[in-house]
Structure formats: C-alpha cells, structure tokens
Design brief:
The protein has 146 residues and is mostly beta strands. The protein has one helix spanning 20-26; strands spanning 32-36, 57-61, 65-74, 88-95, 102-106, 120-128, 137-144. The protein is built from one helix and seven strands, in the order H-E-E-E-E-E-E-E. The protein is globular, with a radius of gyration of 16 Å. The structure holds zinc ion (ZN).
Length: 146
C-alpha cells in the first residue's frame, strides 16, 4: 500500500471542516476549542456535534494555562520531516478552564530531564516548520509556567 501525503504534510490542513477552526484561531495566537452551545461541554477532538447532547458547538477561546497529564520524549524521527526536531517532548495537557479536555501538544522551552506529570504549563505559539516541507504555520505548544 502506498500512502500519498500533500506537499505540505505534516503541516495541519486549515481547510479541514472539523479542525480548521483550531488552526485559524492559532494563526491569531488564540487557543480555541469547541464548546457546546446547548450544554456547555467541551468537545475535543471535534466531531460534527456535541458528544454529550448532540448540540451545536462553537470555537471558544480558552486561557491557555494547564498541567501536563502525560508525556513522552521522542528520540526517533518516524517521518523524515521530524529529523531536525528530535529529541522533543510531546504529550497531553489538561487545561484549567476546559474541563474534560486532554489536548495533544508538543512541549517547548522545557528541560527534557526535568519534565514531569502535573507540571504547570502555559500555551505559547511557535512557527511550525518541517525539514523538506514548504511553508509554516503558527501552532500552540506548551512551556513551563514561571
Ligand atoms: Zn452538549
């Protein structure tokens, strides 16, 4: 089986109907997540409707403070585009003001020997670039909170 990627893969696709709003907000340095307009539940990963009540959701800004739920340190580039980035830490962040969300992210400005679960972190927006891939996008990453 042959897999075909777009010329900008692994950059996110801002035209994706479900996740495009996440990336368009990120280009404005805003972290926004889907929130149900009927019951108030946060809906991540985005689906067509709220998983709790099937209500409509809207992109809703959040503060960007949270804690590391879990993490791993990546030492091997499984795609050539990540070769310049290793080693790096990736994982899940629990946000202070978006109950129930565990957001997959990358960590930045963090000591890989000191990273730990429950570490307080805050969002920052960094230019996402990959070796051999044209273009870039702002992406939300998380760094330790001072
Ligand atoms: Zn709902």
């Amino acid at each position: 089986m042959t897999t075909h990627f777009s010329s900008t893969f692994p950059l996110p696709d801002p035209s994706d109907p479900l996740t495009g709003g996440f990336w368009s907000h990120a280009q404005q340095r805003v972290l926004a997540l889907p929130r149900c307009q009927a019951c108030g539940a946060w809906c991540w990963y985005p689906r067509a409707t709220c998983v709790a009540c099937s209500g409509p959701w809207r992109w809703t800004p959040v503060g960007g403070h949270g804690r590391i739920f879990t993490f791993t340190i990546v030492h091997k580039a499984f795609l050539p585009a990540f070769a310049d980035d290793i080693p790096f830490a990736t994982g899940l962040v629990v946000l202070d003001d978006a109950e129930g969300i565990r957001l997959a992210t990358r960590f930045s400005n963090i000591d890989l020997a000191a990273i730990e679960m429950d570490m307080p972190v805050t969002v920052r927006f960094e230019e996402l670039r990959f070796a051999g891939v044209d273009g870039s996008m702002l992406a939300p990453v998380f760094e330790p909170r001072p």
